[in-house]
Amino acid sequence: MSRVLGYVFVLLFIVGLNFALPRLLPGDPLTALVGEQDLIISPAYRQELRERYGLDQPLWRQLVEYAGRLSHGDLGYSVYYQAPVAKVMGPALLWTALLCGTSFLLSTCLGTWLGVELAVQRRRSWTAAAVGGCLVLESLPGFLLGMALLLIFSLKLGWFPFFGALEVVSQVTRPAALGLGILWHLILPASTLMLAEAPGVALLVRASLLKVLAAPFVLAARARGLTEARIKYRYQARNALLPLITRLGLRFGMLWAMALPVEVVFAYPGAGQLLYQALLKRDYPLIQGLLLVSILTVLAGNALADWGYRWADPRVRSRA
Amino acid sequence: MAKRSLWLTVLILVLAGAGLLSAGGGATPRPYLIGDPQGDWGFPSPFAHNPRGPGYLRVSFLFDTLIWKDARGFIPALADSWEYQASPPAYVFRLHPGVIWHDGQPLTARDVAFTIDYLKKHPHPWVDLRPISTVEVLDPLTVRLVLSQPYAPFLEEIAGTMFILPRHIWEQVEDPIRFQDARACVGSGPYRLAEYRREHGLYRFVAFETYYRGKPTASEIGFVQVGNELVALKGKAVQAAAVPPEAVQELKDQGFTVLSQPHFFCLKLLFNHHKFPQQELAFRRALAQAVNLPDLVAQTLRGYGLPASPGLLPPDSPWYCAPQARYPFDPAAAARLLESLGYRRTPEGWMRDGHLLALELLSSPAYARVAEYLKKSFQNIGLTVHLRQVDHTILDQRVKNQQFDLALSGHGGLGGDPKFINDVCTGPLAREFLGGYQPPPKMVQLLTDQLQTLDEAKRRLLVARIQEQLAYELPALPLFYPTWYLGHDGRIPWFFTRGGIAKGIPVYFNKVALLPGAASASPP
User: Fold this and answer.
1) B67-170 in CATH: which number?
2) Range of the domain at A18
3) What is the value of ipTM here, to two decimals?
4) Chain B neighbors of A283, CB-CB under 8 A
5) Which long-range contacts (CB under 8 A, 24 or more apart) does A63-68 make?
6) Under a CB-based contact definition with an 8 Å cutoff, are residues A131 and A138 in contact?
């Protein structure tokens, strides 16, 4: 209960901060909206925009209006996109959930498996090369990796599309083709994210596992005649999971930020790119909406990490 | 391991095959696509589009104006002909007979009158209707727009920019920006909206079969967001896109058509005219003579650009006239000019009344190299300059609030009607575009006169004198006009519109290129 109250308090505090932070940025949405186009914008239109978005109101009044709208579930109206924030954010969040969710799952599974194998087979020659490869991949910026994949698999081989998350010509009449199209567009960006994330997971699992490889409970499990696979994953890996859960909890909230360079390279219509544009354009309502979702994601990540800790480690459960 | 690799290869091949299937294996015709890294430019209605040029451009495929421009100048659009009447000053437009909206309703002079009334109540970002005093519908196909006084930019700024709205749809719309359903896109242009996906930056237009100037040659055309324009173009995923100068030769070798755009964007060094010594003409000239503009272009643009004219207008502008006042690179002359202001050169820098002259130069990341070059040039004459890099919006805001010494700022629209010089020089915009410069009465008079002079030859003389005055006064130091390129597959005869599309959008995608007989719209 106290944990839930704690999360509610944090949420309220952050909603307040959420309102203030965009407004602390130098510049205002109108300057960002029209930019050099100030030459063209008619004076009447400029004034109309100022009134429409309440930018001529004192700050306290804007806060009251924001809180009032939020209490009704209304996230406001985007200044730059001239559309309801929920309508602008919705599709982007869905694509981000698909991209980040896929890469998160794949990188966790692949990274965990690779980490376990690297630790267990540490005396084999290939593991040294694999660890080196992981270090290289871990240090490569996401956009560089994405660009390399784009040049090889799209431009040279022509296997995958160059941009977007869907075919340009709508395929709504053919759901199967639509699904395949989404999958086809997802492969390169998701692979980029997976290749950027999995090595870190693998190295962490490997390092954690090396500490428990020769633990007495492993010897006991072998003495009981358990299979090697069961010992590896049920006993050794589970005991090495705690640092991984911490990492995953932290990464969960930052997924869309990490996806930003990949979204830019593949023009994948995700929320990371949208937040970046919203910040550049000083689109206060959109920044507020996206930050709110981001905060909820971080809180969810922490809650999942909490839960994961208790699942993985009975000692934490008994202490609670 | 070999087994795993085999499985992986099979998986990739299956997925790639799935990709081919999902693409329809060529069964569905793909539209002609134009790639754009920015993507979304707002809902394509006359009110909800983003107020920048690309937003207007997308709507121009759906909605027509009274007149339009091709490579040579004004051409008929909704109006077949137009004439000016001197007393009272008025324009009479005769509409093309038989024009229909996308929903089949006829377009009449009443729609034109309605549009003007509606835009007066609901301002449009691009159209300032204050010069129009009354509108008279003379018959279903003739409309007379009476002006409060002669207004030279009328054809370009209003008749050639104002989208005509269907009265039967918009007369019930109270909040035009939030009116964003399919009916908001019913226009009289050569294309109808087939699909708009905000998150993909996708605008797909299909040809309007019964368009009054003939069915467009491309049955479908679209704009879509791409991550890398060059890669997408080379991979033929899009058919046209802006490309970097370094790729021009390679693209030509691969059979693409590459066009360079006229130089309608200028990067300027702004001076804060509310501060000393920037408000002094001698100081501004000193800085102008401290910079080697051809070398600046060679170093920072790798030669892909033109050194700017001190009169602001580029040589590509139909209104350009080379000013007499020039500021050739001469560091010694620059130093003498600083001395004339009472500054004394010391090992620390230029001193006056015991104070060291040190200025801050604001720039955005896009112009970091230019800022570095300028700092070095100014250091060569002993001037201390500190660089400060901020993002584009912060820079604009600080310039607007006069919180700067020197700033690098650019703007386009240099090809349009010379009214833009008035916007730049006078009123509240002067603060943003020329650092708070107050033009002398002589200049104000010239600016007023050029707006009211309908005789083109006389107006040309006035605009030439304005350029001369700008070059003499140097309210800002124009640095260069960058060269931008468009690469395309050659299927559509894109051409550059005289002065830019509508009131000066400097891009190639004029809808006239998609109409029958478009090749004749290109420059001779």
Assistant:
1) 3.90.76.10
2) 2-84
3) 0.77
4) none
5) A63/A19, A66/A19, A66/A288, A67/A19
6) no
Q: Which residue of B has its CA nearest to A269?
A: B199
CB contact under 8 A, B237 and A180: no
Of B35, B222, B237, the CB nearest to A161: B237
Half-sphere exposure of B15 (CA within 13 A, CB side): 19
Same domain membership, residue A313 and residue A248: yes
> Is B236 within 8 Å of chain A by CB?
no
- Please state which CATH number belongs to domain B266-482: 3.10.105.10
Residues A247-260: b if buried by 16+ CB within 10 A, e if exposed: bbbebbbebbebbb
What is d(CA A259, CA A193) in angstroms, rounded to the nearest whole number? 7
Q: Decide if B238 contacts B35 (C-beta within 8 A).
A: yes
Q: Which of B387, B341, B337 is nearest to B365 (CA)?
A: B387
Helices marked H in A36-171: 43-52, 59-71, 85-120, 125-139, 142-149
Burial code (b: 16+ CB inside 10 Å, e: under 16) for A17-43 equals ebbeebeebbbbbbbbbbbbbbbbbbe
Query: What is the pLDDT tens value at each position of chain A, 320 positions in all?
Result: 676 787 777 777 877 788 888 887 777 777 666 665 555 566 677 777 777 777 777 878 887 888 788 778 888 888 888 888 999 999 999 999 999 999 989 998 999 889 888 888 888 888 888 888 888 888 888 888 899 999 999 988 989 998 888 887 754 556 677 788 889 999 999 999 999 889 988 998 898 888 888 788 888 888 888 888 888 888 887 777 778 887 887 777 677 777 888 888 898 998 888 888 888 888 888 988 888 888 888 888 888 888 887 777 777 766 65
- Which residues fall within 8 angstroms of residue A240, CB to CB, at 6 or more apart? A119, A205, A208, A209, A211, A212
B371: left (phi over 0), alpha (psi -120 to 50) or beta: alpha
Q: Where are the domains of chain B?
A: 2-61+189-261+484-521, 67-170, 266-482
Longest dimension (CA), chain A: 84
- Asked if A224 and A106 sit in the same domain, the reply is yes
Tokens of B308: 């700017």
Q: Cβ contacts of residue A210 below 8 Å, gap of 6+?
A: A119, A122
- CB atoms B393 and A27 under 8 Å: yes
Give pLDDT, residue A242.
Answer: 79
Q: Please list the helix, strand and coil fractions of chain B in percent, rounded to the nearest 5, in that order.
A: 35, 25, 45
Going edge to edge, which strands form the sheet with B266-271?
Answer: B305-307, B476-482, B266-271, B406-411, B358-363, B384-389
Give the chain A residue nearest B231 (alpha carbons): A155
Structure tokens at A116: 């376990």
Cβ distance A47 to A55 under 8 Å?
Answer: no
Candidate from A159, A160, A162 with C-beta closest to B232: A162
Tally of CA atoms within 13 A in the half-sphere of B170 that contains its CB: 27
Which residues of chain B neighbour A117 with C-beta distances below 8 Å? Answer: none
B231 to A162: CB separation less than 8 angstroms, yes or no: yes
Over residues B60-74, mean pLDDT: 95
Would the CB atoms of A159 and B19 count as touching at under 8 Å?
A: yes
Judgement on whether residues A157 and A79 belong to the same structural domain of the protein: no
Residue B369 contacts A, CB cutoff 8 Å:
no
CA distance B512 to chain A (A): 23
- 3-state SS class at A60: helix
Task: Just give the CATH number of B2-61+189-261+484-521.
Answer: 3.40.190.10
Q: Is B10 on the interface with A (CB under 8 A)?
A: no
Q: Are residues A259 and A292 in the same domain?
A: yes
A234: which 2 tokens? 């049920």
- CA-wise closest residue to B360 among B348, B342, B378: B378
CB contact under 8 A, B225 and A168: no
How far is the alpha carbon of A40 from chain B, nearest alpha carbon, in Å?
A: 6
